[in-house]
Design a protein that fits this description.
Layout (H helix, E strand, L loop, with lengths): L9 E5 L7 H11 L3 E5 L2 H6 L2 H8 L2 E2 L7 H15 L3 E6 L5 H4 L9 H24 L3 E12 L12 H23 L2 E7 L13 H11 L7 H12 L10 E4 L10 H9 L1
Parallel strand pairs: 1-2, 1-4, 2-3, 4-5, 5-6, 6-7
Helix pairs in contact: 1-3, 1-9, 4-6, 6-7
Length: 271
């Protein structure tokens, strides 16, 4: 169902890889709500995914960009403003990567050049995106910038490895840069701490099936899906949330406030 919440708004969506990704679902929902947008991803990610299908479905332009490259980001923002015909109303940062996780390196035995790469892609890129938008004055007043996070930024999930540190840094950057964006541009910046979601990237984390099963049993409303997250993101892009900023917003079916649930206790009682 469409509510016309984003009619005539313009945006940039980072990170749509395939139909399982949250960015992909968000692009579909943003399109349904009346917005136009540019899709972007790193060239290597675009070769792995099916972003052309999404662009065709939503009538969107694709502009490849490495989100860790200021030069690429400056080109992306300049071209997006031209293609869309005006300043940007919303941005979704849906980017995360850990080489240590991909290579099976333990948190207690990190390879630090891999750690630095993961930080740059997962968190540093968010600062770079906002810095370019800020310096170019590319955001329209009362615009909205959202990045995707995870509960491991606050609590220990051993197999999430250095991605937990990356997400903690991401949330800090959102608050710190969000202050300046709010003060100077009336633009809001928030992160969404989403339930474990079976995206292509998420399923690469060791023990992911255990994560998702445990969270489902712990959450009174169950896990939030990628589509649920897309709907929530639409609300944050809309004019209905103009005074929401500097927040890490838990979108996890209640998981973040649970100590234990009957369903989890039952598992242990049955052993």
């Amino acid at each position: 169902m469409s509510y016309g919440l984003l009619k005539e708004k313009r945006g940039i969506i980072f990170g749509a890889l395939d139909e399982n990704s949250i960015a992909w679902k968000t692009a579909e929902r943003v399109h349904e709500e009346g917005a136009s947008f540019v899709l972007t991803n790193a060239p290597i990610a675009m070769r792995m995914g099916t972003i052309n299908q999404l662009a065709e479905k939503t009538g969107s332009t694709i502009i490849p960009a490495d989100a860790t490259s200021l030069e690429d980001l400056e080109h992306l923002v300049n071209e997006s403003v031209k293609v869309l015909g005006g300043k940007i109303d919303f941005v979704l940062h849906s980017i995360g990567m850990s080489v240590n996780v991909r290579k099976g390196r333990a948190y207690t035995d990190q390879k630090y050049d891999w750690t630095a790469k993961g930080w740059d892609v997962s968190a540093g890129s968010f600062h770079k995106v906002m810095q370019v938008l800020y310096k170019q004055d590319a955001m329209r007043e009362w615009g909205s910038i959202v990045a995707l996070s995870y509960m491991a930024a606050q609590r220990v999930f051993p197999d999430y490895n250095d991605m937990a540190d990356n997400k903690a840094f991401l949330e800090s950057i959102a608050r710190s840069f969000g202050y300046f964006f709010g003060r100077d541009k009336n633009v809001r910046v928030n992160t969404i701490s989403q339930s474990p979601t079976p995206t292509t990237a998420g399923k690469g984390v060791k023990g992911f099936d255990g994560f998702i099963s445990y969270a489902e049993k712990m959450s009174p409303l169950g896990n939030a899906s990628a589509l649920d997250c897309a709907n929530y993101t639409v609300s944050l892009f809309s004019d209905l949330t103009r005074k929401v900023t500097l927040q890490n917003l838990f979108h996890d079916g209640g998981f973040s406030n649970m100590g234990v649930s009957d369903a989890v206790m039952q598992v242990f009682e049955e052993e």
